[in-house]
Amino acid sequence: MSKNVLVIGASKGIGKELVSQFTKQGLETYGFARSFGNDSEDTVHHIHLDLLSPTIKTDFEQAISGINHIDYLVHNAGFIAVKPFLELSREDIHKCYQVNVLSVMEITQVCIPKMKPGGHIVMISSIGGFQGSLKFPGLSAYSTSKAALVSLTELLAEEFKQSGIAINCLCLGAVQTEMMEEAFPGYLAPHRPAEIAEFIVDFTLNNGTYFHGKIIPVSVSNP
Question: Which CATH superfamily includes the segment(s) 4-218?
Answer without folding.
Answer: NAD(P)-binding Rossmann-like Domain (3.40.50.720)
